[in-house]
Amino acid sequence: MKNKDTTQLKMTLISISAIIILAVGYAIITSNSIRLKQAKENYIGEQSNTTRNDNEKNSNSNNELNNDKKSNNNNSTPKSSEEKNEKFNVNYTLQPKIIKGEGTAVIIDDKNATFNVTGMSLVGDYAEVEYTIINDSTLSASFSIKQTVSNEEYFEVKSDIRKKELLPNEKTTLKIKVELKKSPLDVVTTTIKEEIIATPNKK
């Protein structure tokens, strides 16, 4: 009888121990789960804060860029319609006119023309051509002529610009006189190139 009671007591103690162990294990598992959940929530919160901070930084950066653009736009002086419509071009116009002598006068482009002289044999012979130049601009202009003579040994070239300062759309004439200054052994020729060099006048 005594042995039976002892056995029952042991079984009871074992059961109680098992229950205690299970309870402790459950408590530990529950505690770990709670800690994991809190850690996960903290991690998510940190990530959310980081993302929020990054978004705020990007937003601030974009705002600064927009402010800089506005500042640059405000600082830049807008061009008036008058400035936008300004143009500057002084050029040859119409066909050149040979006044005396033999030769060929050609306008190559807006800024360049040539005069090829032939048929001279006596000292003092000369040929003369007249060009028309226009200030096709919205600005007044000053200009000069740069000349190149292919045969300076035998020919002397003189130019006469009627007016060197032109108002917008005003015209003037350029006369070129080519004179034989040295007796040649044979008929000689020369080509004169005339280039317009123009600058706008200050307002």
Oligomer: single chain
Sheet with the most strands, sense and barrel status? 5 strands, antiparallel
Query: Based on helices, strands and strand pairing, what is the structural class?
Result: alpha+beta
**Rounded mean pLDDT score:** 80
Number of helices: 2
Class of the largest domain, according to the CATH hierarchy?
A: Mainly Beta
How much of the sequence lies in strands comes to 35-45%
What's the total number of strands? Answer: 9
- N- to C-terminal distance: 133 Å
CATH architecture descriptor text of the largest domain: Sandwich
Order of helices and strands: HHEEEEEEEEE
How would the global form be characterised? Answer: rod-shaped
Question: What is the domain tally?
Answer: 2
Residue windows where pLDDT falls under 50 for at least 5 positions? 79-83
Q: Considering DSSP H and I runs of 4 or more, what fraction of the residues is helical?
A: 25-40%
- CATH domain fold name of the largest domain: Immunoglobulin-like
- State Rg: 51 Å
Give the strand line-up of the largest sheet.
2-3-9-5-7
